[in-house]
């Protein structure tokens, strides 16, 4: 049985401070996590580095923003957030229904 898939648009704030991984490698890792929760990535848009409006850490005032559009079952966003919670390269995750 094929579950119905919904369209989502996720915004990820990536943090590669002090790491040798590039932004593209982190994006590839995020795409693998999306496919692990039965999602299909349709578009990736690298917005680039932006400053935060509200700075919570004076040493971290900005980061790279990436928009990812994907289709996945209804339970996938919660599973994706839980999988990325322990990934130190993904600073913040925001998923909205498209």
Quantity of strands, as a count: 4
Average of the residue pLDDT scores? 91
Taken as a percent bin, the fraction of beta residues is 35-45%
User: Which runs of at least 5 residues are low in confidence (pLDDT < 50)?
Assistant: none
N-to-C order of helices and strands: EHEEHE
**Portion in helices:** 10-25%
Please summarize the sheet with the most strands. 4 strands, antiparallel
Write down the overall geometry: elongated
H/I helix tally: 2
Structural category is alpha+beta
In the sheet with the most strands, the strands line up as 2-3-1-4
Compute the CA-based radius of gyration: 14 Å
End-to-end separation: 24 Å
What does this structure look like?
- The mean pLDDT is 91.
- The protein is an alpha+beta fold and 98 residues long.
- The chain has helices at residues 23-36, 76-85, and strands at residues 6-14, 40-51, 62-72, 90-97.
- It has a four-stranded antiparallel beta sheet with strand order 2-3-1-4, covered by helices on one side.
- The chain has a domain at 1-8 and 21-56 and 70-87.
Descriptive key words:
about 100 residues; alpha+beta; four-stranded antiparallel β-sheet; 2 helices; 4 strands; about 25% helix; elongated
Summarize the structure.
The protein has 98 residues and is of the alpha+beta class.
Task: Summarize the SSE layout with pairings.
Elements: E1 6-14, H1 23-36, E2 40-51, E3 62-72, H2 76-85, E4 90-97
Antiparallel strand pairs: 1-3, 1-4, 2-3
């Amino acid at each position: 049985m094929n579950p119905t898939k919904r369209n989502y648009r996720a915004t990820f704030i990536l943090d590669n401070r002090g790491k040798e991984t590039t932004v593209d490698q982190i994006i590839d890792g995020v795409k693998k996590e999306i496919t692990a929760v039965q999602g299909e990535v349709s578009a990736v848009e690298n917005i680039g580095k932006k400053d935060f409006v509200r700075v919570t850490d004076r040493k971290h005032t900005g980061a790279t923003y990436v928009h990812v559009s994907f289709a996945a079952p209804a339970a996938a966003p919660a599973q994706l957030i839980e999988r990325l919670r322990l990934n130190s390269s993904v600073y913040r995750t925001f998923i909205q229904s498209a």
